[in-house]
Amino acid sequence: MSVVKINALIVPDEMREELERRFAGRAGMVESSDGFEWFELLRPLEGTDRYLVYTRWRSEEDFQRWQQSESFQRGHARAAADAAAQGQASGQGHGHGEAAEQGQGHGHGQGHGHGQGPAATGSELWTFEVVQSTGHKKS
Fold first, then answer.
1. Per-run averaged pLDDT (10 residues), the chain, 139 residues
2. Taxonomically, which superkingdom (predicted)?
């Protein structure tokens, strides 16, 4: 069965639009990866400040292989550079911020030249195995 990775990103209200813009600009970073099955960015409506980044993979090995890919590494190197630049400019460190996005890196860490650093202030990676799955049943 497939493996699901959910990255729960803590996003302050003032960074929500920026986070969504960065994901929109991710331009297929993960979609062409072998074993990739599905992606969704879920916006919270009430009761939480956590966005959920949902990806489904054919196997844990496929996910791990993607994490070690050049594309993944390049995106995270750019995110780290943007976060470091902002930290130096403002005199503040950002803790783990989006560097903790190690689970997925679908572009939310990429500053795309804006030098704004991370849009999220923290994240958790959750892993699940798909035990049952169903889609819409046609009548």
1. 95 93 79 93 94 96 92 68 52 34 43 60 94 89
2. Bacteria
Geometric angle at alpha carbon 118, from 36 and 115, rounded to 5°: 110
Distance CA 122, CA 133 (A): 30
pLDDT reported for residue 75: 66
8 Å CB contact between 27 and 79: no
- Distance between CA atoms of residues 36 and 122, nearest Å: 24
* Residue 3 near residue 63, CB atoms below 8 Å: yes
CA dist list (Å): 69 to 1, 56, 72, 111, 124: 23, 17, 5, 20, 21
What topology does CATH give the domain 3-129? Alpha-Beta Plaits (3.30.70)
Q: For the chain, give every domain's residue range.
A: 3-129
Where are any strands of DSSP class E within 11-49? 36-42
